[in-house]
User: Which sequence fits this backbone?
């Protein structure tokens, strides 16, 4: 029994809500419970905390305390005029001391099955345009022999003799708060409340068997490495009537011989000769749609990026496509015939020998070309 102000004991204001009171009690009970706190005064502090919460968590007692103080909740001789109902605290103690509510109820509620993951490798073009791919997955399914009962056909599970079908065992334990019951999952039936005397020969009493299934997965156009495709309900089976988990397809796109990808654009390096760069030309280039003609402007410089609109990646969640960006590289010949050399000598004489320093680098040029 304490003479300290109950609000001070719990560390809350006089206008504290029920949730604030319960939160303060949880925090302090966890801190001062003698099972976890070995300090000499932990037992007294814990009793003080429980007394304060028992009063303030009851609307009538709290009103009497607010009006008359300790005298309003204590009888003759200063003895507390109430009995602490520790069943109100069962969820709190059970949360971190293992007492209170039945664990079998939590164990036997419907639970969703686990998710599965499958890695799918795609060709570059398959990722761009989408494809239907057949895959094989191995997962648990309800046993076809016992239909999930775990028992041989013609027999049935029986009530567990250890827990009498409750799925839990109870053990009384004396604590500073009085006699409390510790509830644990039955070790014989693992919480199910049933045992199988004649296990199914096919699943060995699991109720599940491993099966390999073929599935056709529709891969949408525009996926990229790291994207996931969700197949709802194609994962592991749930328990106690819970839903199946999901199957997640993790996409990996294999590198292409020519193309690279930057978000919705496709990048291509293209080599042209000096004459094509100088005079301009119409040249055939590969695209994911097939060969197309690209116009090389007159005087194209090395590193120039040319844009082919609508030749890129389809938008995954929308209409339209990105572009194909062609980076031009001018090939300088290193083995000239005598005739070619004579032509270049004449060209060199015509152009002169003056050189000019360049103010901007290649990367600046590339950035401007891509953004424009």
Assistant:
């Amino acid at each position: 029994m304490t003479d300290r102000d109950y609000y001070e004991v719990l560390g809350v204001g006089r206008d504290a809500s029920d949730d604030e009171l319960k939160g303060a009690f949880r925090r302090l009970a966890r801190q001062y419970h003698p099972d976890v706190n070995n300090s000499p005064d932990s037992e007294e502090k814990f009793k003080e905390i429980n007394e304060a919460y028992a009063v303030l968590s009851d609307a009538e007692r709290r009103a009497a305390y607010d009006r008359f103080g300790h005298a309003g909740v204590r009888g003759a001789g200063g003895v507390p005029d109430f009995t602490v109902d520790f069943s109100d605290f069962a969820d709190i103690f059970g949360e971190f001391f293992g007492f209170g509510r039945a664990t079998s109820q939590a164990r036997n509620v419907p639970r969703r099955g686990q998710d599965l993951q499958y890695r799918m490798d795609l060709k570059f073009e398959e990722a761009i345009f989408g494809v239907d791919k057949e895959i094989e997955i191995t997962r648990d399914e309800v046993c076809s022999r016992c239909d999930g009962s775990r028992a041989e056909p013609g027999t049935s599970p029986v009530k567990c003799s250890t827990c009498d079908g409750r799925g839990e065992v109870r053990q009384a334990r004396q604590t500073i708060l009085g006699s409390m019951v510790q509830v644990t999952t039955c070790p014989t039936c693992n919480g199910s409340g049933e045992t199988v005397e004649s296990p199914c020969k096919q699943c060995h009493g699991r109720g599940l068997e491993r099966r390999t299934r073929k599935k056709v997965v529709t891969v949408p156009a525009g996926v990229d490495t790291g994207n996931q495709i969700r197949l709802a309900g194609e994962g592991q089976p749930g328990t106690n009537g819970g839903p199946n988990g999901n199957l997640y397809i993790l996409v990996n796109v294999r590198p292409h011989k020519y193309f690279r990808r930057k978000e919705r654009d496709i990048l291509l390096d293209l080599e042209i000769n000096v004459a094509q760069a100088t005079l301009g030309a119409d040249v055939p280039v590969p695209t994911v749609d097939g060969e197309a003609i690209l116009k090389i402007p007159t005087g194209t410089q090395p590193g120039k990026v040319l844009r082919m609109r609508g030749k890129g990646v389809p938008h995954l969640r929308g209409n339209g496509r990105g572009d194909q960006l062609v980076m031009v590289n001018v090939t300088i010949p290193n083995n000239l015939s005598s005739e070619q050399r004579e032509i270049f000598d004449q060209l060199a004489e015509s152009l002169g020998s003056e050189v000019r320093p360049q103010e901007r680098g290649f990367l600046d040029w590339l950035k401007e070309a891509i953004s424009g």
